Amino acid sequence: VEAVTTPEPRPTITEVARLAGVGRSSAARALGNYGSVSPRTRERVQAAARELGYEANELARSMSTGETRTIGVVLADIANPFFAGVLRGVTDVCAAEGFDTIVVNTDENVERERAAVRLLVTKQVDGIVISPAGGAAADPRHLEAARERGVPVVQLDRTLSRFDGPAVVLDNRGAAYTATVELLRAGHRRIALAWGPWMAAPPTTVCDLEAGAELDLSTTRERLQGHLTALREAGVAPDPRLVMTGEQTAAGVAAFLGAMLDDDERPTAVVVTETDAALGVLQVLRERGLRCPDDLSVVGFDDAPWVQYLDPPLTVVRQPVQELGEGSARALFELVRNTEAVPSFVHLPATITRRRSVARV
Amino acid sequence: VEAVTTPEPRPTITEVARLAGVGRSSAARALGNYGSVSPRTRERVQAAARELGYEANELARSMSTGETRTIGVVLADIANPFFAGVLRGVTDVCAAEGFDTIVVNTDENVERERAAVRLLVTKQVDGIVISPAGGAAADPRHLEAARERGVPVVQLDRTLSRFDGPAVVLDNRGAAYTATVELLRAGHRRIALAWGPWMAAPPTTVCDLEAGAELDLSTTRERLQGHLTALREAGVAPDPRLVMTGEQTAAGVAAFLGAMLDDDERPTAVVVTETDAALGVLQVLRERGLRCPDDLSVVGFDDAPWVQYLDPPLTVVRQPVQELGEGSARALFELVRNTEAVPSFVHLPATITRRRSVARV
Fold first, then answer.
1. For B234, what's the count of Cα atoms within 13 Å in the CB-facing half-sphere?
2. Residue to test with chain B: of A1, A103, A151, A155, most B Cβ within 10 A
3. B-interface mutation test, from A5, A24, A55, A57, most B Cβ less than 10 A away
4. Confidence check on the interface: ipTM exceeds 0.85, yes or no
5. Coil, strand, or helix at residue A72?
6. B28 CB-near residues (< 8 Å, 6+ apart)
7. Do A133 and B156 meet the contact criterion of CB atoms below 8 Å apart?
8. What CA–CA distance (Å, rounded) separates A186 from A183?
9. How many beta-carbon pairs below 8 A join chains A and B?
10. pLDDT tens string for chain A (361 positions)?
């Protein structure tokens, strides 16, 4: 453990003003390039600034233009590979536009999300890209407040039914439909869905289940719709017990499937709608000495680089994650630039990649 | 495709000044709480601000305090799971301190890194956490310039030998030593290292190789040192051909190992120093119809959640990735607060997790 030198403080406007022999506000006007200032004062302030190594800064520029060239990005957790890919897409577009990105994690906590949006507005970001937390659906006033203050908002991946703003989302209905059809074509009839909507009590009917989905995130709701549509088209009556309605995490998936697999009427296949949650499925199979796909067929979502090297390599519906981030940032810049017509919804389609996690029954 | 309403612009200082019947700079002083302003003017400006819904903002506050409560984070690629984990650690500490983080990806491009540091200084961030690009080692003047302007810099994961600043790093020497010893104990003698230092031409002697490492990143240099030390302690003469010195990517690892495995004196084991590069090893084995660990034993670095579900589950030296991010941010806040003694180096140790990718020979 060694000590390092404390850095020299950078020169302030006050020091520049003192050296130039003018008031602080005159110096600020001269350096920030706003308001009126005599040529003589401007010259003296600039000479003092050069002598002290003071540099006209972004803050002063922002004060006069009202533009911070910064975009706020609000999402659940950047350590989640899905959001890491999304964020990469957002920052790429922002960097190309000369904008910085301020990143906030909410961990799906609505209060943290509200505080983040308020703070970003106070910081005068030029716009916000947000993947809203599930609990925000009932009360999206924080997003309305941002927009009323002139900070445009683009929803990413998820939309809140009560907030009427532009969004860039994946085709979750189509993705879940495709995944379920893949299993139906292999002869499966008892197909579980992990996960469905979060519900306080397990649903006893499919009608209950669909009502529960109305209160959840758009992503969960649309995936359930795609799944149920595929079943009904194939003449399979949906069973509400096969849809996970508990804690929406990889651990929740493991708990749900564990209970399912111990049941007499156990499923022969499962659709897993989150990258990391597929690991929960593999864990539960390993714990019981069961094998995928012999004992349980699996179709996952997203196609991380490691998915093809799993045991077994997973069949997945592949969603364009980075494009999702890029598209959201582009939509936001259209709003920032006051383009008159902004597409309110952009759907990015999923494709299926077949590997070795689906068995014929 | 629908059109959405363009948002109401938020009120500017100019509009507040117009309504209050005062000059723009008086209004700015009254709202930003700096310089001198008569009580009467202040009152009129505040009334106008209330009427227009103008809110005293962070920029004005920053102008008067010189603090933006923002930390710049410069790293190679947030979509890389290693850096995603690191960034999560940094943002957690910053959020707890009430600071925002501006994130910049350099993709290991030194010019992009220099531009990013310059811009962050101009934006008056309160400090910078940086994982410097390899090419920056020869000329770290951009980091010195930031520090001279009073923006403290903490190096994360990697250090530049010519930049004498605090750093929080993993114990890369110890990690590579541990990985190599694990393979030596299983009886391996021809152990490859992917990757070693990048070199323009393949080294012909170990001395060449060590000289090449002097010019590369601290991480690569220290891992090579740990690897060579383990070999020498076991009485195994290092073979420079077994150390990868080409392109430092997962594809580079695949190309290097592909060539090695076609050789007569092929290695029986490999130490892979990057999470994703282990996938390059699995790819090359799959392409040749070879198996891990029967045909090649592998010890990887880092322990992503999916590593235990690979085929086979990998033995890895586990590095505390999130703690690395947290530690760097904490060191930076000590500098920001002008704490007199800041530890110049913090080493975070690695531990080994044994699975099924190492065979006895």
1. 23
2. A103
3. A57
4. no
5. strand
6. A34, A35, A63, B13, B17, B60
7. no
8. 5
9. 209
10. 333 333 445 667 778 888 888 887 787 777 765 557 788 888 888 888 878 777 655 555 555 555 678 899 999 888 888 898 899 999 999 988 888 888 888 888 888 899 889 888 887 889 999 999 877 767 889 999 999 888 999 999 988 878 888 899 999 999 999 999 999 999 999 999 999 998 989 999 999 999 999 888 889 999 999 999 999 999 999 999 999 999 888 889 999 999 999 888 899 999 999 888 898 899 999 999 999 999 999 999 988 888 999 999 999 999 898 899 999 999 999 888 875 556 677 889 999 999 999 999 9
Q: Which among A53, A105, A343 has the least Cβ separation from residue B1?
A: A343
What residue of A is the nearest CA neighbor of B337? A6
Q: Is the pTM of this model over 0.80?
A: no
Q: Tell me which chain A residues have a C-beta less than 8 angstroms from the C-beta of B122.
A: 55, 57-58
Contact call for A310 and B309, based on CB within 8 A: yes
- Report the residue of chain B nearest A292, measured CA to CA: B309
From A84, A306, A340, residue closest to B6, measured CB to CB? A340
Instruction: Give the type of residue at B16.
Output: V
Q: In chain A, what residues touch B22 (CB-CB under 8 Å)? A: none
CB contact (8 A) between residue A3 and residue B95: no
Say whether the peptide bond before residue B312 is cis (omega within 30 degrees of 0).
Answer: yes
Cβ atoms of residues A244 and A236 within 8 Å: no
Coil, strand, or helix at residue B347? strand
Amino acid at B346: V
CA-wise closest residue to B332 among A7, A328, A120, A265? A7
